[in-house]
Amino acid sequence: MDLIAPTEPPSHAASEPQRSAQRLRIGIDRLELAAIASGGALGALARAGIGEALPTPHGHWPWATFIANIAGALLLGWLITRLQERLPIMTLPRPLLGTGLCGALTTFSTMNVEAMKMIEGGEGTLAIGYLAASIAGGLTAVFLASAISRRVRRMR
């Protein structure tokens, strides 16, 4: 999505909201938006499936969120490396898979809410361990997947 400046100045007879709208026009790439929405739907369904398969009892490690975040980070590292270093660079796979699929699959906001609930329930040590493992695991997954993606590409 691009921010595009207008070519003509705003009319003096227009109201302030109309002048503001005339100053900036947002160009929306509808194919890119559809790609993000489609990937997001798939990622959200996968995330919901993981959550249903691995419910978390109160005061326990939230495996569903942890697995979704690490898997999403791993997938993101692999995909973005492959798509970014591919020539010619394709425009729709990145928003479909990176922004849409991986963005909806990973759920770092849920991770934070779960950690706060742990703290409120007197499980501060579990919360700190969960946050540290999630962040370290996610970063490690991205770096490993990216390195493996590059190595596989060089082997071809």
Give an account of the 3D structure.
This protein is mainly α. Helices cover 72% and strands 4% of the residues. It contains 6 helices and 2 strands, in the order E-H-E-H-H-H-H-H. It has a two-stranded antiparallel ribbon with strand order 1-2. Helix 3 (63-84) packs parallel to helix 6 and helix 5 runs antiparallel to helix 6 (124-155). The longest helix has 32 residues, at 124-155. The chain starts with a strand and ends with a helix.
Low-confidence parts lasting 5 or more residues at pLDDT below 50?
1-10
- What distance lies between the first and last C-alpha atoms, to the nearest angstrom? 35 Å
| Mean pLDDT metric | 86
Q: From N to C, what is the helix and strand string?
A: EHEHHHHH
- Structural class, by secondary structure, is mainly alpha
Overall shape: it is globular
Main sheet properties: 2 strands, antiparallel
How would you sum up this structure in a few lines?
The chain has 156 residues and is mainly alpha-helical.
Throw out a few tags for this protein:
2 strands; single chain; 156 residues; globular; mainly alpha
Ordered list of secondary-structure elements with their pairings:
Layout: E1 2-4, H1 16-23, E2 25-27, H2 30-53, H3 63-84, H4 93-105, H5 108-120, H6 124-155
Antiparallel strand pairs: 1-2
